Amino acid sequence: MTGWIVAPDAGRVEEVSCGHLDQAPDEEPPAPVRGCEECLAAGGTWVHLRKCLICGHVGCCDSSPGRHAWAHADTTDHALARSFEKGEAWAWCYQDSLFLLPEPT
Description:
Elements: E1 4-6, H1 37-42, E2 49-52, E3 58-60, H2 68-76, E4 80-83, E5 91-93, E6 98-102
Antiparallel strand pairs: 1-6, 2-3, 2-4, 4-5, 5-6
C-alpha cells in the first residue's frame, strides 16, 4: 500500500484533511500476529481486527469487547489503523475521526 486519502463525504461543507497521514511509513510494518495481540494473550475473542499503520500492532475493533485497537491508538498516539480483514481496503484516523481509502494508483 503506498498511501491513504480521506474518503469523500457528500455531507461535508468543505474538504477535510487528516493531519496524521504523514505518520504512516512508506512501507507498511508487518503484523506480528494474525489476531488481536491482547485478546490472544488473555484468551479473549474479537469481532474484527485493525492493524496500526505506524507500528503494525493488531488489535480488535470497537465492536469487540476489548476495543484494543482504539486503546492502542489512545495510549501510543498512533492515530492510523487499517482494517485487517480479508478483502477490506480502508483505514481510520482515530484522532480526526476520518474514514480513509487507499490512494488511487
